[in-house]
Amino acid sequence: MNNASSQPGRGPGEPIQPAPRTTGRWLSIALLLIVLDQITKLYFDSAYTYGQRVNVLPIFDFTLMYNRGAAFSFLASEAGWQRWLFTGLGIVASVVIVWMLRRNTAQPRFCLALTLILGGALGNVIDRVVYGHVIDFLLFYWNDWYYPAFNIADVCITCGAVLLVLDELLRARKPRN
After folding, report:
1. Can you say whether the dihedral through the CA atoms of 6, 9, 12, 16 is positive or negative?
2. pTM for the complete prediction?
3. Are 34 and 42 in contact (CB under 8 A)?
């Protein structure tokens, strides 16, 4: 039996009960993020040629790039084994996240952070399985400096990670009862 000290509103000794309806809402949001990510990737993959850039702002272009690696093209130049490593990591992370969502339904900020990471991770896993690479299309730069191209899934993962840190900082500052 789990102790409720990790969930607000529960008394000592009360079991942590997953709320399938609440978990379902978080999974629905993750699914919506995956669909949005995949639609944008399909659009850019069909409307642009590889490497094409269209200027939107003085510091921002739409482009079409493929990333066989992970963040910042980590391991992109390897022979292909990294595709399955990153696919496996994404799947394992997704299983752990769903498990954590089911156990922490009383913490909406934490669950939102996990949901963003889940949607982004699975969006990129789909790319790796279907195409063998991740489709990127957002490019920020300043003069000769370029941030690596990225996509909606990457935005979700980054926002989820930031929110996860923020949630932990806010929970650490909260007075204990």
Report:
1. negative
2. 0.81
3. no
